[in-house]
Amino acid sequence: MAQAAGHTGDLLDLFRSEGALSRIDVIERTGLSRSTVNQRLAALERADLIREAGGAESSGGRPSTLFDFNAGRAKVLTADIGAMGFTLAVCDLAGRPLDHLSRDVEVWSGPETVLGMVQEGFDSLARPDEVWAVAVGVPGPVEFDAHRVVNPPIMTGWDGYDIAAAFSSRYRGPVVVENDVNARAVAESRLTGQPNLVALKLGTGIGAGLVLNGQIIRGDKGAAGDIGHTRAGHTDPEPRTCRCGNLDCLETYAAGWALVKQLSDLGRDVRRTSDVAALVAQGDMEAVRLVRAAGRSIGEAVAGLVSILNPRLVALSGQLAECGEVLMSGIRERVYQQTLPLATRDLQIFRSELGELAGVTGLALIAIDTVLAPGPLTELLGANAGT
Predict the structure, then answer these.
(1) Which Pfam families match (predicted)?
(2) Of the CATH numbers 3.30.1370.10, 3.40.720.10, 1.10.10.10, 3.10.150.10, which one belongs to the domain with range 8-70?
(3) Which of 41, 234, 301, 354 is least buried, going by the fewest C-beta atoms within 10 A?
């Protein structure tokens, strides 16, 4: 069946999604004339975005030339910033991380400090002339089109800060700013091929990225999926104050920072969420008890998402997810208790296999979609690319 191909970028999307194709393949899939296909393939070849990849199987005549997407044509720099540190990566145009590094820093140190460290890391990963796009993920609501953080609960000094401006003068391509969990959701969706999923990041804080019908759902102000600051299903008689200023948010019962506080009050030597996961791995009974209870609280919030959105997958990542079944069993218990059987019939709840590179991979994919969109791609191809 022919696909719409109103722009040279549509042809490039074919190669990105389907792999090596011949001219005949492109004509059949797009319905475009041979002359138009030849013109657009030539533009993509001149830009070195596609390359010859050998010949197709022949049925007796001369084999057709195959063309394939050249993912090594340029690089994308990505920064996945969390509450207590960040992971940076340089990726190819297929979103594959080529090299990466991690640094510890508290996000509330402020944008100048954190982004300065990010730039130092970027300088060690790639030269500016190799880079076609930059993407930065942050642990707070993002106004995507404006590249700004909006009223972040824990990001002191970041509200309204123009993150893109910190990098746009150094790199020629677009600078994308995205919520960190949205980026993970995009990575999970693309790499699993599943268009309906929820990605949970369970670390110092709690957040959810939502993908429906293959599209990331950001909401009107970028706050979609911020389940960590919804009210917990089960609360104590004495209200708990959240870091956002509200009472009895889910995070006060189940986030890494809350578990660290509770275990510290019980005399355990814990400072970070990773310390909580280490205690669980050692079989510490109090840590196991609190994490299992946290799983149930998270499960109640996830049950609401499952009932409303009906995802096929719920993928968990973050340092708290390293607690494995101690956490997962509580989540599954509440989801299956509180959700109709139809919504959970084929539901899979699992720990992500993408590890620490989930965020940078998703950020790269979002940035690549941006830089290879019709407008930016036309600039890359030059005046001869056509429309």
Answers:
(1) HTH_24 (PF13412), ROK (PF00480)
(2) 1.10.10.10
(3) 234
Collapsing DSSP to helix, strand or coil, 135 comes out as strand
Which tokens sit at 384?
């001869």
Neighbours of 275 (CB within 10 A): 19
**Structural contact between residues 54 and 80, judged by C-beta atoms closer than 8 angstroms:** no
Tokens 């929820």, located at residue: 198
First to last CA, the chain: 22
Spatial distance between the Cα atoms of 221 and 275, rounded to a whole number of angstroms: 34
Please state the CATH superfamily assignment of the domain spanning residues 75-180+360-374 in this structure. Answer: ATPase, nucleotide binding domain (3.30.420.40)
> CATH top-level class for 185-357?
alpha beta
For the chain, the C-alpha Rg in angstroms (whole number) is 23
**CA–CA gap between residue 242 and residue 197 (Å, rounded):** 27
Rounded CA separation 387/384 (Å): 9
Domain with CATH 1.10.10.10 in the chain: 8-70
What confidence tens digit (pLDDT) does each residue in 278-328 have?
999 999 999 999 999 999 999 999 999 999 999 999 999 999 999 999 999
DSSP per residue over 32-68, as a string?
--HHHHHHHHHHHHHTTSEEEEEEPPPSSSPPPEEEE
Q: Is 134 helix (H, G, I), strand (E, B) or coil?
A: strand
pTM of the model: 0.89
